[in-house]
């Protein structure tokens, strides 16, 4: 197999999966007493038994999107991305996010940079209806080159309302929800294409610069709480790094996408300019579908009525894997 363009850009999805398995196999200790872990390590969020409730924790960061912000000197939206990447991990299990802590590691402190990051964090907290209850800033010159922004989010839900994907069956419909663009994944490959073939100030046909498209904040899919309360939902997925491979976290069954959402221009530009294969694009980016609901066929219309822009993009099949029509992505 030839080396993928994403791997050449510094991110090897298959190696990451193998490395994560190597880490997880050594996480064998389990707490004794009350408030123990529910389920296994490896879903979108970790759950804790809290009587009739389940608590949830998730952690994530902005990644190399920070380097694009550095290029144009605009860090005002990356805080939204940081919160979005965390709360979306909770939404897919129907957990309600309630509190957040951030972690900023930098080689040098900049008051202006920190102020702008605070603007984004506050806006993300507002969109997700969460409290930012604390955080940590570490000056790590020699270890960090630049600034890294990450966070951890806490959520809660009644146990009987948790959505894990265990009810997914062949014949279920996949309802796709539009993304706001590239979100916070695949930026290593996107930056490689820009820096080899173009410039961040170059404008697309929609009039926006490439930098502005890449910095468009990750969508916070807060409406999923109401959808999962009102509809029969067997599984949910938000499409992050790994693209359609994310769906393999939900079920042993396969996921076939025969009517995918139309990718926004930024994805078409990356694909054509970088000469990236379609399979790799759908293994790396959300390609315009940032979130999805896996539901019984008779529930699909109700979901699409509740979520603007959502529509049926595929279905669950017996054959394992993720499929773009007849083309296997995995």
Model description:
By secondary structure, the chain is an alpha+beta fold. The protein contains 11 helices and 13 strands. It has helices spanning 5-8, 13-24, 65-72, 78-91, 111-128, 187-197, 210-215, 224-230, 265-274, 278-284, 300-306, and strands at 37-38, 46-50, 53-61, 96-106, 131-139, 147-158, 173-178, 235-238, 254-257, 289-295, 311-317, 322-324, 327-328. Helix 4 (78-91) packs parallel to helix 5 (111-128). The radius of gyration is 19 Å and the shape is globular. It starts with a helix and ends with a strand.
Q: How does the major sheet shape up?
A: 7 strands, mixed
Kindly report the spatial arrangement of strands forming the biggest sheet: 8-10-7-11-9-12-13
Number of beta strands: 13
Report how far the terminal alpha carbons are from each other: 13 Å
The helix/strand order is HHEEEHHEHEEEHHHEEHHEHEEE
Total helices: the number is 11
What Rg do the Cα atoms give?
Answer: 19 Å
Beta-strand content = 15-25%
Structural class by helix and strand composition: alpha+beta
Shape: globular
- Fraction of residues in helix: 25-40%
On the 0 to 100 scale, the average pLDDT is: 94
Poorly predicted regions are none
